[in-house]
Amino acid sequence: MKSKILIVDDEKSIVDILSFNFKKEGYDVCTAYDGKEALEKVYAYDPDLILLDIMMPQMDGLQVCRKIREKMNTPIIMLTARAEEVDKVLGLELGADDYVTKPFGMRELMARVKANLRRSNHMGEEEAYVHNGKMIRHENLIIDLDRYEVTKDGEILELTLREYELLKFLASQKGQIFSREILLEKVWGYEYYGDVRTVDVTIRRLREKVEDEPSKPEYILTKRGIGYYFIGA
After folding, report:
1. SS3 state at 205
2. 194-199: which pairs have CB atoms within 8 A and are 24 or more residues apart?
3. Same structural domain, 38 and 74
């Protein structure tokens, strides 16, 4: 079955080029040209991945991302201009999984899309046999590798794909410290063209959902000057 991709950008030339290339690669493509139309297409089309421009009429990409994350965990790759450094971080904080800077190469973008789809479709499959078979447990926090769910005190936590993958990776290797560069390679799953702030932003979002007091984390700790680790048993 073809993966469905929603392409959202107010520049028709960009939409046309992306649409042509992704159809050529065998994807089912849907398009939108502003934020309002994007949300309508998201709920009607139920895409497997969304390419989302930031600067658009009606509703910008950041607003669209926020709205989508209220209901869905569909992978979102933000399309940003070079001058929008703040917006890149904002997009990640709002739940985007990735971003690509314009002008981008089609090969790079295709690699990002394939990596995000692969992780979305087979999330946790390669590690589903570890830690008592299907589950990683630490005190009141449980990562269910079969259901791709994280519960704390019996309540399901609403994590994005990237947040889940990052938590699972750290928790499966308790006490081991990983640099930001290694986390980009292992969790994002390909040669990452962005910067290490992506990791910091995702860690911060994850702590806000997992920790009782994000400023005083008990699960995901920082080793100053080195990286991050999940507290050992």
Report:
1. helix
2. 194/88, 194/98, 194/99, 197/89, 198/92, 198/99, 199/166, 199/228
3. yes
Domain span holding position 64: 4-121
Model pTM score: 0.69
- Look at the block and give the residue holding tokens 């990776």: 169
CA distance linking residue 194 with residue 178, whole number of Å = 18
Q: Are residues 167 and 100 in the same domain?
A: no
CATH of the domain at 172: 1.10.10.10
Cβ atoms 150, 164 nearer than 8 A: yes
Q: Which residues pair with 150 in a beta bridge?
A: 143
Report DSSP state, residue 75: -
Instruction: For residue 2, give the 3-state DSSP assignment.
Output: coil
Angle between helices 85-93 and 61-69 (to 10 degrees): 10
Q: Are 117 and 49 in contact (CB under 8 A)?
A: yes
Residue that the structure tokens 């899309």 belong to: 113
Convert the pLDDT of each residue in 146-172 to its tens digit: 778 899 988 999 888 889 999 999 999
> CB of 17 within 8 A of CB of 41?
no
DSSP character at residue 125: G
User: Domain ends where: 101, 121, 141?
Assistant: 121
Nearest Cα residue to 153 out of 212, 100, 233: 212
Q: Are residues 138 and 103 in the same domain?
A: no
Q: Please give the share of the chain, as a percent, with pLDDT higher than 90.
A: 55
What CATH number does residue 26 fall under?
A: 3.40.50.2300
| Coil vs helix vs strand at 77 | strand
